[in-house]
Amino acid sequence: MSPHSDSAQTNAPQITRVDGTAIAVRGNDIDTDRIIPARFLKVVTFDGIGQFAFQDVRIDENGRVTDHPFNNPVYRKASILLANRNFGCGSSREHAPQALMRWGVNAIIGESFAEIFAGNCNALGVPAVTVAQSEIAELMSLVESRPDAKISIDLLAGTVITPNSQYRFQMPAAYLQSLVGGTWDSTALLLQNTEEIRKTAANLPYVARFA
Amino acid sequence: MNLLDNVWERHKVATLPNGQDQLFIGLHLIHEVTSPQAFQMLEERGLPVLYPDRTMATVDHIVPTADQNRPFADPLAEEMIQALERNTTAYGIRYFGLDSSHQGIVHIVGPELGLTQPGMTIACGDSHTSTHGAFGSIAFGIGTSQVRDVLASQCLAMSKPKVRRIQVDGELPTGVSAKDIILCIIADLGVNGGLGFAYEYAGSTIEALSMEGRMTICNMSIEGAARVGYVNPDQTTFDYIRGRKFAPGDEAFQRAIDYWKSIASPTGADYDDLYTIDASTLEPMVTWGINPGQAIGITKLTPLIADLPEEHREVAQAAYRHMSFAESEPIEGKRIDVAFIGSCTNGRITDLREAAAAVKGRAVAAHVRALVVPGSKQVARQAQEEGLDEIFRAAGFQWRAAGCSMCLAMNPDKLNGNELCASSSNRNFIGRQGSPTGRTLLMSPAMVAAAAVAGRVVDIR
Ligand code: SF4
């Protein structure tokens, strides 16, 4: 499945499952400045931004490559990111999920996500699902000991499946619905109601400057 | 029905198939960082901007604050400002660029032009859009794909948040400001505590605050994970708006006030949660760590890791490592290298007045690099009229042009190495101020000013 190749079209593909190997980035409150430092935001397109994901924790202050999982070649093909609590907090920059997605992340499993970040992921068709703290700990241990372990996120069944276990995930119902229904690219959807948009606007006293 | 319910209902266009609401956006603010990709997406789909007159643009993040000659020395920054110039021209969007007397940080420009009004929905591709809630609007930060949605349809697909009323009562002690209130709230409720909530700030302390103070508080709602923060509009709000460039004219103003009052939360409105603070017990706050929730009163000691709830220990450890601080030590007395006064949190005229009062007739410590960066050209003009720039310059501060500056690392203003910076901005994340090893202490503008003079963190009281 390659849901992102045709993001310019108005009809988004239905995303019902994501299969792949996973990569664990441990830590609570990992903010968007960490995911993509601000200096890499000086771009007018998202192309090429993937290589800078987690840049400042991948290279230390002396220019040495760190042991960050994104530097570990065994995870280079991973398509599912495992995260802890409040992942993606901080700025609204869509550059953060864009960088992860363009690095190769097709879905994120975490303990919890910052709200704007979760919305941004959804707008890109990247499911961001949550499981319990103990479950994310198990998942992380699994992929750290067995980087080739196949993991599936079954959006229709609401489960994360590993070779040995199965977990129920949570995600906002609206996001789930839009992913499996293929309506996660909202622009076309919003434009279907142009009549109602005009009506709503006309009823707002400030739109006519309180005339 | 509280204010959020009222505003939501009036702006709801439809219920979407996924159960979210389609919400009309009354005011859309854009800047150079998060809009170019959105325009590119529009172009790819051949879509027009539905309500070009409901979007306003300015340039702030990448603007150099020392030398603003074009082309910018940084070709990437130049490319970004040109993209904004091109897009605003192509789509007929009003743009307050560098040659406009209204350019500045987007969250400062909106209110001071009277664009930001009560009872509006406001969106901007920037998480500190919550600032505008100070006027009793529902304002939220959005991602670039949503910027595209607003440009194309003037709408967003949104789920309605719950509302937590944060009741702040009591008289603020001398030396304690709005910044300290919000740092305290975030420290208490946690950087994760507002997830799924809008914060309604209320109570006698909030009512007594200026609009600038209310904006400081609403600005940092997002640091506590609340995407929306607001204050019910009152006479202070109306007085602030009256006469501003885009405010309703004299004749319409009374009708505007009627609408603004009609959307406010009535006494006894329902809330999903309530949190109360006694402002009279507050002291100046300062952060010791790497997120805005890691803050303590200036007379307190940094926490013992063992005393923290388990889920906070790991981040606390990382914070001590990054900051080179230890458990159970004071932040007061820490020697600083840099002092930064500015940002959409504390770059307004009242902030500069408070900071100037703390430095008047004194000199910045010899080892400190100190910057004052007004939040907008209008703030700069007003400060100059009041002679504040002279006070800062005489004390040894650099007086800069309006922009985001050292709040984030997208322009030439940055920390070097592991410099320790007393900052009036809103984020102390690792690397936020441009050096991966740089260290940030968030505090009020008056505290930053006092730290600049002393060369170390001091208690202004
Ligand atoms: S001042 Fe800082 S927080 Fe505010 S808009 Fe600029 S970069 Fe963002």
Can you tell me about this structure?
The complex is a heterodimer of chains A (211) and B (461). Chain A has helices at 32-35, 55-58, 95-103, 115-123, 133-145, 173-181, 186-191, 194-202, and strands at residues 17-20, 22-24, 80-82, 107-110, 128-130, 151-154, 159-161, 166-168. With 211 residues, chain A is α/β, with parallel strands linked by helices. The N and C termini of chain A lie far apart (53 Å). Chain A is globular and about 65 Å long. Chain A has a four-stranded antiparallel beta sheet, with no helix packed on it. Chain A has a single domain (17-182), classed as Aconitase, domain 4, CATH 3.20.19. Chain B is 34% helix and 17% strand. Chain B contains 16 helices and 19 strands. Chain B is globular and about 55 Å long. Chain B is α/β, with parallel strands linked by helices and 461 residues long. Chain B starts with a helix and ends in a 7-residue tail after the last helix. In chain B, the strands form five sheets. Chain B has a five-stranded parallel beta sheet, sandwiched between helices. In chain B, strands 17-16-15-18-19 form a five-stranded parallel beta sheet, with helices on one face. A four-stranded parallel beta sheet of chain B has the order 11-10-9-12. In chain B, helix 13 crosses helix 15 (388-395). In chain B, helix 6 (178-189) links the parallel strand 9 and strand 10. Chains A and B meet through helix 3, helix 4, helix 6, helix 7 and helix 8 of A and strand 1, helix 2, helix 3, helix 5 and strand 8 of B.
**Count of domains of chain B:** 3
Bin the helical content of chain A. Answer: 25-40%
Shape of chain B: globular
Report the mean per-residue pLDDT of chain B as an integer. Answer: 97
CATH H-level superfamily of the largest domain in chain B: Aconitase, domain 3
Spans of at least 5 consecutive residues with low confidence of chain B: none
